[in-house]
């Protein structure tokens, strides 16, 4: 799956992964010790050592996660020649936005067919509707919650003692949630 992700990035003109990446990245859960398996990408700030840590299994969720983390690695590779102060995203959300945009290019039936993960070559109405509904449930339905969390976290910096009521009020306003008492 990691090679599939690398092929995707090189196919759009980005850099291949270094031998150090392949040698030092952790892509399977070790059996001899316990580790935190949360996927993450690492820049060791020496302009050549970038690593991925993800306990992958062969499934769609890990394939998408690999592409997401590889977007971070590609970002590190692209800015490696910059002075140290410029080797970071323009703001905290930029890396995530870039990685999520790449995932949208990967997570679709056309790409899955192209790489041999999906056999149906016909572009049917039902296929498109199912894909669009999946994307709506994964991405669009999350937007009101994300907005609410962002707003409440900003208000938290102001030090209010009414966090729960603010959150519930926002849940009603943004997602039209109705809470039973």
From TrEMBL:
The keyword Hydrolase applies. It is an enzyme of class 3 (hydrolase). It holds the Pfam family Peptidase_M2. Its EC number is 3.4.-.-. InterPro entries: Peptidase_M2. Keywords: Carboxypeptidase, Disulfide bond, Glycoprotein, Hydrolase, Metal-binding, Metalloprotease, Protease, Signal, Zinc. Its cofactor is Zn(2+). One of its GO terms (molecular function) is carboxypeptidase activity. One of its GO terms (biological process) is proteolysis. Belongs to the peptidase M2 family. This is Angiotensin-converting enzyme.
